[in-house]
Every structure is written in structure tokens, then in C-alpha cells.
Amino acid sequence: MPPAPGIVHALRMTFQVDMGLDGAGQSVPIDLAELLATRLLVQGNSGSGKSHLLRRLLERSAGQVQQIIIDPEGDFVTLGDAYGHIAISAMEYSIAEVAKFGARIREHRTSVVLDLEGLEMEGQMRCAAAFLSALFDAPREHWYPALVVVDEAQIFAPSMGAEVTEEVRRASLGAMTNLMCRGRKRGLAGIIATQRLAKLAKNVAAEASNFLMGRTFLDIDMARAADLLGMERRQAEQIRDLARGTFLALGPAVSRRPVAIRIGPVETGSRGGGPTLTPLPQQEAGEMRQFLFAEMEEPVRPAPPPPPRPPLAEHLLDRIETVAAPDRAAPEPRYDAAQLAQVIGDVLHAIVADPDAAARPAAVLYQDFQVRCRMVGVHPAPLDPSGFSRRLAAARAGIFDGLDTDWAEVIAAAQDLPDEMLGCFLLVARAAREAEPCPSDAELARTYGTSSIGRARRVLGYIEGRGLLVTRIDLAGKRSVTVPALGWTTASAEIG
Predict the structure, then answer these.
(1) pLDDT per residue over 337-370, tens digit each?
(2) 103-132 confidence digits (pLDDT tens)
(3) Which of 255, 297, 339, 468 is deepest in the core (most CB within 10 A)?
């Protein structure tokens, strides 16, 4: 009696993945063990059936080998329902956390789909680079065989400069090169799919020994496909005439001669699906207009408030006279501590509200502080220059009182910071205390008293370097900041 299929597969140490039918109606399998050793490149224009092909391969080999899928469009997350793949949405994690996933996946041999949908190109490349590098750098005892499928591979291994920083491009290209060139010894079998061979780095594409070429229209892509299939240039025209879902296959895991395969059906589908024709609604034009313009009446906007009137000339003269001849000023009333605190708060409110004061240093504004205090009968000024500098920093962060009570713990944590940086720290601490969105670079710059975004970022980096703050940037490019001494964390927000 012949052994059970599973035993046969174990004895042969291989598995035949049925991909579909050739022109004669015969099944065309892919040898899984050979595929693990020789890698695969899939190419075809949009609509040629690449995703369908990858889904067929993944479904038919599920349970036989670990599968790791880098999915830029979120097409393959549906594999989890039918085959147990774990979907990881990169939008929800940091780069460091994604790298940890990569290490744990190799250790536990879990099939996963890394869903990059929603990230900009640079975020996708950063995430893929960290993830692939973690797979590649796994310790030797975790070098189990795994299929690593990378859809839209031209994003992660561009043949020319992409619209991202050079650092990101190099990291992503290096990770893809390691996967295809050096991954075999580590058990990683790269399966890459691309719409455009001309946009895919040649050193990455050249490492594949198996090819499945779908419908392609551009001459440069047809020429490269024909070269990889060992066809003459005049034969390349047949690649343009391939039907959707039909691929020319060549390689040691499929066929020693080019063979056309009509990819078979699949059991799962993508979340979005392809566009299909559906009947238009039959409402009359009047009804449709009513639907479109419902509740769209132009709101009545109040007239903008008139600009503030400039101060009267006599008031300016009085102010100048008071500064120039303080001896002739009116007798100064006495103020108790509560009244002085109120005066300080009112004057700081006025200074911070003055748009011209935003870029002035504290030393210059201290003179204005003295004048304003004198105008309300407080002389000498109730704060020395150092005390004013710290109170001004707090006021720019929106904190006008309670520095010695409610904010005493925060002030104590920042006691070693220069006075001019205290405002940025307090601005972040106030947002963290209330779990509000992290202040933007522009808000930090205004608090620091500068218009330079770069300087504001350097200040934040300096404060973080002193261990007072910890910054975390997620894959969506949003920043959150933690004050570790107090256990407060801001909500995530855009950096700019």
C-alpha cells in the first residue's frame, strides 16, 4: 500500500504546488524545495494578474512552509481568515517595534502579512528595510526555511533614485539585496513581484532563477523579460499578447523551457477587489441635484472684527515721559504678594500676546517688563532678569502661574536646563500632562523665540540628550514625546 501523501512529501523533502494549466490542459506545478533554493521573480503590468498568481502560490503552499509577506497595499491580509496568517499593520507601530516582530517571526516560525497600507513611500521603505534586516540578522538557530514575498518590489529596490532620502533608499535597497543575494543560506527564499522590470534594481532581479512573466506593454520591459526567459528579441512581442492571468514560466522549480501557464482559481480575495461595471442610479436630474446640494447652503459668516486702533499719541507721549523721567511719575501704591503676582501675570500675558515680542530675546523683553510694571505703579520690577527669563519661558508655554505649586515637580526636573530652553520643555510637559497632541516644530520654535524650525529641532534633541524627554516617531511620521521622570506622554501628532 502506498504511503500517505504527507509521508511521500516528507520522504522526498519537497512539495508540488499546482499553479494552473498549460496550453495542453496539463497541470504545471512549482517544486517548493527547489523554489526555496532558487528564488522567484514575477513581472507584469497592472491588471496582468500578479497578485492572483502570488495568492495562488501562497494558498497552495500554506501549511508546508512559513510565509512572510510584505504587502504595500494590504491585499493579502485576508489570508489570515482562511490560513491563519497574522496581519501586522505597520501604521500602528514604530520602526523598532517592527524590527522586533521580524526577529520573533523567525524564532516562532509564524506566517505573517506586514501590511504597509496607509504609509507614504518613505515610511514603507523604512519599515521594509527594518523588517527584512531583522529577518536576515536572526541567529543561526532560527534559520528555518521561509518564503518571503515582496509585492511591488520596485518600491523597495528602485533601479534609480526614488523620491526619498538617500539614507532610506540605501537601507531599503541593501535589505532587498541581502534577501535575494544572501538569504538562501539563512533559509529565506525571496519571491518578488513588480510591475516594471526597468524600475527594479538589476542586482536584485538577477538573483532569481525562476521567472513568471505576465502581460507587458513597454518595449524596455519586454526586452528585459525576453532576456530573462532566454527568448530572442523578436519573440518578445508574444509577452504583449498574453491574456490576463497567463504567465510565461521558466526556471528549475517550474520548467526548463518557457511554458505558458493559466493560473488557477484562488479561495481568498483582496479587501478591495478590482473595478467592475455596475448600473448607474436611475434618479432624475432634479432629485440627484437635491441629494448633492442637501445641507450645502453657504453659511452666513460674521464680518471680521475691525483691526485694533493704534494707541493715541498722547498715550505714547505719557509712556515715553514716564520712562524718561521716573522721578516725576505718580507716587507708587504698595502691593501685597497676591497683587504683585497678579501684576506679573497680567504683564506676561501682554508681552506674550504681542506678536512683535515673539522673536525678541529675554534680555530685551526684560526692559519692556520693567516699563509695563512701572506704568501700573510697580517699581522696582518684582523679578530679576533670571527670574523673568524663566517666567517668560513658562508664559510662552502657556503657563502663567502655579510654577511653585502645581508645576514645581516639572520645574525641578528641568532645573539643569538653560533658561531659554525651559519653555520648550514646559510646552511638551503641559501637552503630556493633559495627554494632548505633541507640539509641532513650529510651536516649539515660537516658544523658543525663533522662526527657525531647525533650531527648534536641535533644542528638542538637546533636551532629549539630557534624558528629560524621550521622542517616538511612528511609521506614519507622527511624533509623541514622553517625560520619563513624570510618566507623562503626549498624544501622537504631525511633526511639522
Answers:
(1) 777 778 888 888 888 788 777 767 777 778 888 8
(2) 888 888 889 999 998 888 888 999 999 999
(3) 468
List, for residues 73-92, the tens digit of each pLDDT value.
Answer: 888 998 988 888 988 888 88
List residues bridging with 226 in a β-sheet: none
Q: Are 126 and 172 in contact (CB under 8 A)?
A: yes
Q: Which amino acid is at 126?
A: R
Residue type at position 325: A
What is the predicted pLDDT for the residue at 314?
47
Cell of 484: 520619563
* Residue 349 phi, psi dihedral angles, 5° rounding: -55, -45
Residue the block writes with cell 521561509: 146
Domains and CATH numbers, the chain: 5-263 (3.40.50.300), 313-494 (no CATH)
User: What pLDDT score was predicted for residue 328?
Assistant: 46
- Supply angle C-alpha 254, 259, 260, rounded to 5: 115
Distances (CA, A) of 333 to 162, 322, 375, 381: 69, 16, 12, 13
The three-point CA angle 186-187-192 to 5° equals 105
Residues 377 and 339: beta-carbon distance below 8 Å: no
In the chain, the amino acid numbered 481 is V
- Which amino acid, one-letter code, is at 20? G
**Closest listed residue to residue 123, CA positions, set 164, 178, 89, 68:** 164
Question: To which residue does cell 526619498 refer?
Answer: 164
Q: Supply 81's cell numbers.
A: 481568515
**Contact between 495 and 471 (Cβ < 8 Å):** no
Helix (H/G/I), strand (E/B), else coil: 330: coil
E strand or H helix at 99:
helix 95-108
Inter-residue contact 435 to 489 (CB < 8 Å) = yes
Non-local (6+) Cβ contacts of 278 within 8 A are none
Strands (E), 168-309: 188-194, 210-213, 246-251, 255-263
Per-residue pLDDT, 242: 80
Provide the residue count of the chain: 496
pLDDT at 6: 38
Query: Which one-letter amino acid corresponds to residue 448?
Result: Y
- Residue of 30, 39, 16 lying closest to 249 (CA atoms): 30
The single-letter code of the amino acid at 319 is R
C-alpha to C-alpha distance for 168 and 289, rounded to whole angstroms: 48
Pick from 148, 156, 137: nearest CA to 99: 137
The grid cell for 474 is: 511612528
Q: Identify the residue whose cell numbers are 498549460.
A: 22
Instruction: Supply the pTM of this predicted model.
Output: 0.58
Q: d(Cα 369, Cα 382) in Å, to the nearest integer?
A: 10
**What is the rounded CA–CA span in Å between residue 87 and residue 114?**
6
Residue 94 DSSP one-character state: B
**CA 211, 213, 218 angle in degrees (round to 5)?**
135
Other beta carbons within 10 Å of 434: 11
